[in-house]
Amino acid sequence: MTPPLLTRRTLLVTAAGAAASGLVARTIPAAARARTHNFVMIGDWGRRGHYEQTALGERMGRVAADHGSLYTVSVGDNFYDDGVTSVDDPQWRTSFEDIYTADSLKSRWRVILGNHDYRGDVDAQLKYGQAVDSRWYLPARYYVMRDQLADGSTADFFYIDTNPFISRYRGTKVRIDGQDTATQLRWLEQGLATSDADWKIVVGHHPVYTAEGRFDEPELIAAIPPLLKRHRVTIYVNGHIHNLQYIERDGIHYINNGAGSRIDPVGVAQRGGFTAPEQHGFMTVAMTRDSFDFAFVGLAGNRLFGRQIPRTA
């Protein structure tokens, strides 16, 4: 089991200089765990409880308890429409603390930033876990964490910041100016190249490829898949598109998990993929040394779709 987290308004102690370097590692203890390494993921959720956010949060809490979830991953767009203004912004309560109240969701949240978060005070989101609520873990704009799985294998999760790669945001309310994509890509390349983990998984806010094809991101297609292929990364998870989609391209599994509150229409899946029209939802993951088993879970608790993805040797 993951050790209890510190209570609200206490400080979370982290390694010196971690946020500045953008590289942070934590390991979940190996002892006394289930056969699989279980967690839940959600994206595009922070709407003060509206658009079924509250109901879906309650469902996720029940499913996370049954699933034995160790932690929650947020794939960005944590607060709509304009992020938060400070660590004291009321949205921390109305969109986060008052929504995800189940004990199963009180363990650590591993968080990344979405484009709507960049319309507000990003530094407030970086500081919140240390200053206010220690379950919120966002030590830097991009970072890596290593997990030891129940069977003794390891997984390195690379949580990246895709926002600066999207050139259409420059000069808009999405304040990405000054972010250095070349430095981030070098960090990712080096991290993937030197990782000796059994699994290497990349999590970003924006999609690379989508099953319906309309929202493929050319700038990310140019930057990310070459690294994934070169370093045998088989899984990329994202949000941003407000629905649930899955597609495999060139041996890489692209999972779009952006249905945490308001959902948008989605087209018919192309290229052998999957889309879930008009479905709120989140993801469950169960990992072993040899498989990454994920499922999309709907508002009613029903399994909408899933895949057992084998590890690349």
TrEMBL record:
Its EC number is 3.1.3.2. Keywords: Hydrolase, Iron, Metal-binding, Signal. One of its GO terms (molecular function) is metal ion binding. It catalyses: a phosphate monoester + H2O = an alcohol + phosphate. This is acid phosphatase. Its cofactor is Fe cation. Binds 2 iron ions per subunit. Residues 39-243 form the Calcineurin-like phosphoesterase domain. The keyword Iron applies. Fe cation 1 binds at D44, D77, Y80, H242. Fe cation 2 binds at D77, N115, H205, H240. Pfam families: Metallophos. InterPro entries: Acid_PPase, Calcineurin-like_PHP, Metallo-depent_PP-like, Metallophosphoesterase_PAP, TAT_signal. The keyword Hydrolase applies.
